[in-house]
Amino acid sequence: MNCELAHERIVLAAYGELPDEQIHELDRHLAACTDCSQEREQLQALKTLATAYPMADPDPNFVARSRMRLDEALDAIPPKRWYERLGQRVVNNFSNMQAAPAAAVLLLVVGAGAGTLGGYEYAEARIAHAAGQGSAEQAKLDASPAQTAPAEIANISSIEREPNSEIVHVTFNQLVPQHIQGSLDDPSIRQLLLLASENATSPGVRDDSVGLLAAECRAGHGCKGEGVRDALMIALRYDKSVTVREKALEGLQPYVAEDMRVRDAVLEALLNDSDARIRTAAISILEPVEADTSVRQVLSTVASSDHNPHIRTVSRQVLSRAPEIR
Amino acid sequence: MDGPDRAQERLQARAPEMELIREAQAGSRAAFDALVRQYEQQVLRLALHLTGSEHDAEDIYQEAFLKAFRYIGNFRFECSFYTWIYRIVTNLCLDQLRRKKTRREDQAVVIDQSGDEIDVLSSISDQRSFSNPGKELDRKVLGERIQAALSKLTPRERMVFELKHYQGLRLRTIGEMLNTTEETAKNTLFRATKKLRTQLAGLR
What we know:
Chain A is mainly alpha-helical. Chain A has 16 helices and three strands. Chain B is globular, with a radius of gyration of 19 Å.
């Protein structure tokens, strides 16, 4: 290791961001190099000095004054109209379901079709149509089958899987309740499950959908795309039902090692989830990831500060049992 | 980084948070107010420490929450709400630091409690007094020197140092907040500590 690299690593080590195997390497270098060892002392001195300008809690009067001023400014903003909110909601739902790739594919197909036919009038008609309807939004609408267009779905009332088969029955309400059945791999079924995982008012339905999506992920069926993983992470972070969060966590297990965002979500659950079962499950699925010290940091924090003694003990056990994490 | 009490608070606050966000997205002012109360202390602490001025911190607070109110419909639960709101705040702080930087150029200036600007370096006449910090340099003056040294960093360096050193955030999260990569955040932190050490060399 040269001194320039060592200087960089000294900073990372001082702030707890250096992977363990590099810490040992750095220690060996520092033992042999006086310049670098002075460098480390200087950095420690800087860290001590910087505490002379501490973060102070804002004065309560100052907070109250700021809030009052904000209140006045917020009062002056006219409330959003219902159609603005609706529009926003539709846009969000589309984005959540990752409709963009489908829209892109659709545009490609439309483009290829137009090219093959080659008729000037046809192309002109398509352009006029797209301009008239707002092309991007329209393309997204076209991307989903009419009967499952999310903007028309009021809510999802039940999800049932046929025993020992890939068939799922999803009941949902549009203007009138509807029911479709199809394979778990069917994109429209997937879309409904994703919607149900986030928006269904009944915890049972969210539970069913998250459970099915999680099982698909664990079985390695079509969970490569980020849509399902995102839905599971959202459920883990925000769902009110413990069973739903538990299932989401199970579904995310295979991706803890490879996907940093999944790892973050699981670490967050370990630190913050209100239910001890979820925190315990989070500990059990955290696999040692050598390059990521955050796992070890979070486990140490939990081992020292979780209010549940069992979880503190388990974290300590994991830390001591797995030398590669330590 | 977080004490058990703070973790406990966050834990209790988190459960209804999604509901609050959804209600705020549906136009509920009361729900938005609850979110403001949840985050306002942290926002003010950060802005106050970064700008060193109550006046600027209040402006940042005001603008950040107005922006959050206007754009809360765009929040899609892809990151935590904490990261989202911090992203807005850090952007506003960066703008503020940039404006300040051009206004003051290279002067080492801080704002005192009455809101007046004072030049720290010129107010300390005898540089030799720093040679024995234990006896001659009281903590307040030292704090002002640190603040002056921090104000000489580029806005981005200042922000990364602030979020890492004072807020204890992970470089990965900092990168996410500042719309850049972990690697860039790492290099920026490295530059910041190097500059600070040069600036504060006489103080040890």
